[in-house]
């Protein structure tokens, strides 16, 4: 996927550190050009991972991610809710 940058690094953190932050899996900030930059962290019970995901307005997943976050305006930062474990039945598989 052109335009999407995904960088992940594993970190060892106790699950209690993340428990206080659920239901958020990170933050999203919209840049002046509409690009969304998300700082994400996985939730237990799996391994803890941190990632930065950059999604440009021209990316295929842009609208889906923007809708998931609840819409944004340039300069705004919002909490990112967790995604469902399974995609809705009407969502086409990629």
Secondary-structure map:
Elements: E1 5-10, H1 15-19, E2 26-30, E3 36-41, E4 49-55, H2 62-69, E5 77-80
Antiparallel strand pairs: 1-4, 2-3, 2-5, 3-4
Distance between the termini: 11 Å
Supply the number of structural domains: 1
Principal-axis shape equals: globular
Q: Give the C-alpha Rg.
A: 14 Å
Q: What is the share of helical residues?
A: 10-25%
What kind of sheet is the major sheet? 5 strands, antiparallel
Order of helices and strands: EHEEEHE
Average pLDDT:
77
Low-confidence stretches: 1-22
| Quaternary class | single chain
Instruction: Report strand order across the widest sheet.
Output: 1-4-3-2-5
- Tell me the β content: 25-35%
Number of helices: 2
Class of secondary structure makeup:
alpha+beta
The total strand number stands at 5
Describe the protein in words.
It is a single chain. Strands 1-4-3-2-5 form a 5-stranded antiparallel sheet, with helices on one face. A hairpin with a 5-residue loop joins strand 2 (26-30) and strand 3 (36-41). The chain has 2 helices and 5 strands. It has one domain. It starts with a strand and ends in a 14-residue tail after the last strand. The radius of gyration is 14 Å and the shape is globular. It is 14% helix and 30% strand. The longest helix has 8 residues, at 62-69. With 94 residues, the protein is an alpha+beta fold. The model is unreliable at 1-22 (pLDDT under 50).
